[in-house]
Amino acid sequence: MELKIAQIQMPVTADREENIRCACDMVRQAGDIDMAVLPEMFCCPYDNACFRPYGEAEGGPAYRALSALARERGIYLIAGSLPELEGHRVYNTSFVYAPDGTCIARHRKIHLFDIDVEGGQRFMESETLTAGNSVTTFETPWGVVGVCVCFDFRFTELSELMVLAGAKLVVVPAAFNMTTGPAHWELLFRQRAVDGQCYTVGTSPARDTAAGYVAWGHSIVCDPWGTVVRQCDETPQTVVTTLDMERVEAVRQQLPILSARRTDVYELRRK
Predict the structure, then answer these.
(1) 52 by DSSP, 3-state: which?
(2) Under 8 Å CB-to-CB from 240, ≥6 apart: which residues?
(3) pLDDT (tens digit, 9 = 90+) per residue, 251-261?
(4) Is 2 a catalytic residue?
(5) Residues 170 and 196 sit within 8 Å (Cβ to Cβ)
(6) 150 belongs to the catalytic site
(7) Exposed, middle or buried: residue 266 (CB in 10 Å: 0-12, 13-18, 19+)?
(8) Which of 24, 109, 125, 198 is labelled catalytic?
(9) How far apart are the C-alpha atoms of 253 and 250, rounded to whole Å?
(10) Number of other residues whose CB lies within 10 A of the CB of residue 209
(11) E-assigned strand segments in 207-248
């Protein structure tokens, strides 16, 4: 069974409404697809000073626009992430919409991006954001899909929990930077694909060298064998990739990793 998935590597500006319009337009440009993925913080500059002012509660303008877009196009839409307001808290949240426009999943980034690389990138999401606490998967006609946000993907336990919940595809809206991107972007997506014997899809904003936080770009798709099926450059673009979802089971049968787990010796469980 084939799944046509579009990745929206879009420019992100200081104009919130323009970002929402751009996201919708680029999804429409993808044509006949089954699923689309937006990047992390698609409607907001990646800056602690922007998260609260650009934030919205569930049901806000971006939420409504993307729900309507999913319904208009008849697609599953993984809406990157945006700053979600709930009381005094701000979350880095990915909403997922079904083809009828209903919200069927919400992932709040679990692992906040607090890094200080000597001679490289420093960023402290915890200065503004609150961490989520849930593993997120949802059902589709092509099987279970897992979703996490950027820094979450570095934690093998989370990816494994999604796979153990049935995920054949793990989707990651992300904004790696010019320090972590060249070092780890492709490596991580290939490794998680090999670990979980699943497809991994990473969607980044386009690179803006004038921004305070410069995204790596290079949106990527890896197959269950760990092969890079597609990788973009850093420029704005909409790309569509057809995934052969039957390949997941084929690889899992040929190399029986998941079925050979020694749960009598070790165990991984969600709380």
Answers:
(1) helix
(2) 4, 5, 6, 7, 30, 31, 33
(3) 999 999 999 99
(4) no
(5) yes
(6) yes
(7) exposed
(8) 109
(9) 5
(10) 8
(11) 220-222, 228-231, 237-244
What are the pLDDT digits (tens) for 129-183? 999 999 999 999 999 999 999 999 999 999 999 999 999 999 999 999 999 999 9
Q: Which CATH superfamily is domain 2-260 in?
A: Carbon-nitrogen hydrolase (3.60.110.10)
Q: How many CB atoms lie under 10 A from the CB of residue 262?
A: 7
Query: DSSP characters for 112-157?
Result: --EEE-TTS-EEEGGGT--------EEEETTEEEEE--GGGGG-HH
What are the tokens at 77? 């839409």
State if pTM tops 0.85: yes
Q: Of these residues, 22, 50, 150, 222, which one is catalytic? A: 150
- In terms of DSSP bridges, do strands 2-9 and 220-222 run parallel, antiparallel, or are they unpaired? unpaired
Q: Write the pLDDT tens digit of every residue in 64-82.
A: 999 999 999 999 999 999 9
From the candidates 22, 40, 56, 160, which is the catalytic residue? 40
CB atoms closer than 10 angstroms to residue 41: 27
Whether 109 sits among the annotated catalytic residues: the reply is yes
Residue at 181: amino acid letter: G
